[in-house]
Amino acid sequence: MPNNLGTPERPLRVAIIGSGPSGFYAADSLYKSDLTISVSMFERLPTPYGLVRFGVAPDHSKIKNVIKVYEKTAAHDQFFYYGNVEIGVDLTVHQLRKYFDALVFANGAETDRKLGIHGSELKGNHTATEFVAWYNGHPDFQENVFDLSCETAVIIGQGNVALDVARILTKTIDELKETDITQNALDVLSKSKVKTVHVVGRRGPAQAAFTPVELREFGELANCDPIVRKEDMELSYPSQIELEDPKNAPKKKNCSILEDFAQREEPKKNKRFVLHFKKSPAAIYGIDDENKVGKIYLEKNVLVGEPNHQKSKGTGEKEELKCGIIFRSIGYRGVPITGLPFQEQAGIIPNTEGRVSDSEQIYPGLYTVGWIKRGPSGIIGTNKPDSEETIKHLLDDLKELNPCKNPDNKMLEELLKENNVRYVNFEEWKKIDDEEIKRGQPKGKPREKFVHVKDMLDFLD
Ligand code: NAP
């Protein structure tokens, strides 16, 4: 007998795991259908919005205005938020299925890709994701220590995250103090001795992953000059062909900005943002056998392959770069959730257009959106069509969904209480939000974030 899910008598019950952009776009997409739908969103931390809160750079505050869109979604009368609930730990996937007809995994990419080169274990070798999470107040990273007492930092990778890290290291405190960066990060940065930040890409200027708006900012910093070698801007024929392809228009813009940087006069400001192209990290060493980063060897590369498919190939020639701190910024990576399939190599939940499926089976009632669906690529807006695709399939599957046994949030909340899980609802999050804004006001900051879960819960209780 066909089910009556999505009717006023029996609303479709969807759990979304993760409260970043892809999760909110999935909720919004569900509410846009003509069906009656109840959405419960689960988040490991008390605070919502994922990388909008913990990834977007503090000095890019306009990007965070997207939160207003998510707040509208959260205002729906059939929206329920459960912050401070970790799926796989506080509630298993199996348990969730008893309360919801469909589960949508929007849990993003929580860790980072590895380089696996000699010296990776040395002190002072960090991931960009940790540094970003630290200065953005992510509770898991507040005990991390970044020693900025050296003059030279190296960032491996040339994506927008690498540029975010480089900007935070090269901006003046005046340029940062009225952002929502944490007070602790501001204090550490105000004592920073870092003067030169090298940003190393394994391919050429025409292939760099960063985008023009983010790159252009380095030409306008108060106390930092951008440095690009003129020779690096002599592009090979395949790279020139790539730039003529209309789909590579942003890369062409990158190159014209880089050209401008390369033509600039001698740097005069105190700090330097130095771009290196066609070099891969080969090994990291400590100085005098100390257990701390002292230098990195970079291997020079050539590009091989057809236009738009050019890869880097090592030449064997190496150069040494002295440095006191290294940030690896080569992409985020998803982590598995117990009870769900995981594609190890790509770091994603295997799926077909958002329906969780592997080579052996489709998992009915399980869906995925965002970075854990497609890998860590694209800007916030990329998640909207991505989530819409998944939700369309979920709604197409409506008649085949297996109605859950306990279609009742009260029962779910009782279970959470029995398990001593102190969940945070959306009204409570709004109290935290208001308090953060209030704490930021005397400093001229948009907010001063709570950086420990305990402090948030103590404040609420
Ligand atoms: P990304 O854009 O994928 O860049 C990763 C970088 O790491 C690339 O330069 C890549 O080089 C390099 N890389 C990968 N593996 C490497 C290896 N084994 N050795 C050396 N280099 C390696 O990643 P991301 O910077 O983490 O950004 C993730 C996504 O978030 C992107 O879509 C980005 O645009 C977005 N984002 C946007 C903003 C913004 O809009 N302001 C800010 C932050 C992040 P290859 O190109 O050669 O692979």
Q: What does this protein structure show overall?
A:
By secondary structure, the chain is α/β, with parallel strands linked by helices. The protein has two domains: 12-110 and 333-424, Rossmann fold; 114-330, FAD/NAD(P)-binding domain. The chain contains 16 helices and 18 strands. It has a seven-stranded mixed β-sheet, sandwiched between helices. Strand 11 (279-286) and strand 12 form a beta hairpin. Helix 1 (21-31) crosses helix 13 (383-396). The longest helix is centred in the middle third of the chain and has 15 residues, at 249-263. The chain is globular and about 75 Å long. The two termini are 47 Å apart. The model has no long low-confidence stretch (mean pLDDT 96).
Topology:
Elements: E1 12-17, H1 21-31, E2 37-43, H2 50-54, H3 67-74, E3 79-83, H4 93-99, E4 102-105, E5 111-112, E6 125-127, H5 128-135, E7 152-156, H6 160-170, H7 173-176, H8 183-190, E8 196-200, H9 212-216, E9 224-227, H10 237-244, H11 249-263, E10 271-276, E11 279-286, E12 293-304, E13 311-322, E14 325-328, E15 332-333, E16 351-352, E17 355-357, E18 362-368, H12 371-374, H13 383-396, H14 409-418, H15 426-440, H16 453-460
Parallel strand pairs: 1-2, 1-4, 2-3, 4-18, 6-14, 7-8, 7-14, 8-10, 9-10
Antiparallel strand pairs: 5-15, 11-12, 12-13, 16-17, 17-18
